[in-house]
Amino acid sequence: MAEQQNPTIGLGLWKIPNSECADVVYNAIKVGYRHLDSACDYGNEVEVGQGIARAIADGICTREDLTIVSKLWNTYHSPEHVKPALEKTLSDLGLEYLDSYLIHFPIAQPFVPFETRYPPEWFFDPDAAEPKMQTAPVPLSETWRAMETLVEQGLAKTIGVCNYNSGLLNDLMSYAKIKPADLQIESHPYLTQERLIRLAKDYGIAVTAFSPLGAMSYFELDMAEAFESVLAQPIVVAIAAKYKKTEAQIVLRWGVQRGCTLVSKSTKPERLKENLDIFDFSLSEQDMQDISELNRNRRFNDPGNFCEAAFNKFYPIYD
């Protein structure tokens, strides 16, 4: 079993239903999770906060034991909206500060007031005859300067970015007064992102991998096909048998041994425990290489695909 303080496996809160979320968070903390990965866009921060409050009230942990992360949504990129967006998240979570606040996507969209729609999601006006995603001309440098004030005011201990490519990361490091502490990216054996991870580490930036099991997060969204499961790969099955671990544990262990924090999502107590139980063995260098060679640069969470398919706007950010 993982040590309770070990932050290298976090609970991802994307797609956890509101009706289950408080219990899932509470149970996750109870079995040892101390890193919670939240976001405005997930629409369940009130329930996340309820789960946290219950765990603290029951003496399972203190606030200081937890690493709580949330993200600035696209519609709040204008500098005047950054602090109110964080304050809304803090209010929903019932917290006084975040351990880390991240820019969710390098995509700026027109502001949507909280009272109009929260979370705002991707459509500017979902009730329009032909709803469409819209973008706003807000430079990322202006958003970052507003993010820096959150650290200066003690509302976030650190700040960082999600879904940045190497060019954006190099650019950010050229102007950031407060450097990003975290880079959160999709990474799994089908999308190893070795050069981007190496660049981040060269800059001293910690890397968090979301969707560490790859296609598993995307089947229900019709964004992946069943045959794309890395867990069915013969080499993963063989390595799992060798170590007497599940295929998921092998893939998660691979991710951790690369030096990344992972955020994995589950609502089942037994799976929550299983995902943490990867710290009593190590993969060999050959195992690590064999899994890495599964790379096919397959990105499941790609705005260049889903923005056009779901929100009627072609908007690639990785090409």
Q: Can you describe this structure?
A:
This protein has 319 residues and is an alpha/beta fold. Mean pLDDT is 95; it is low at 1-7. The radius of gyration is 19 Å and the shape is globular. The protein has an eight-stranded parallel barrel, surrounded by five helices. Helix 1 packs parallel to helix 2 (45-57) and helix 7 (234-243) packs across helix 8. 38% of the residues lie in helices and 13% in strands. Helix 4 links the parallel strand 4 (98-103) and strand 5. The chain has a single domain, classed as NADP-dependent oxidoreductase domain (TIM Barrel).
CATH topology: TIM Barrel
User: How does CATH name the architecture?
Assistant: Alpha-Beta Barrel
Number of helices: 11
What's the shape?
Answer: globular
CATH superfamily: NADP-dependent oxidoreductase domain
- Regions with pLDDT < 50 over 5+ consecutive residues? 1-7
How many strands in all? 8
Mean pLDDT: 95
How far is the N terminus from the C terminus?
41 Å
Class by alpha and beta content: alpha/beta
Number of domains: 1
* Helicity range: 25-40%
Output the strand order for the largest sheet. 1-2-3-4-5-6-7-8
Portion of residues in beta strands equals 5-15%
Q: What can be said about this structure in brief?
A:
Helix content is 38%, strand content 13%.
Q: Which descriptors would you attach to this protein?
A:
319 residues, alpha/beta, TIM Barrel, 8-stranded parallel barrel, 11 helices, 38% helix, disordered N terminus
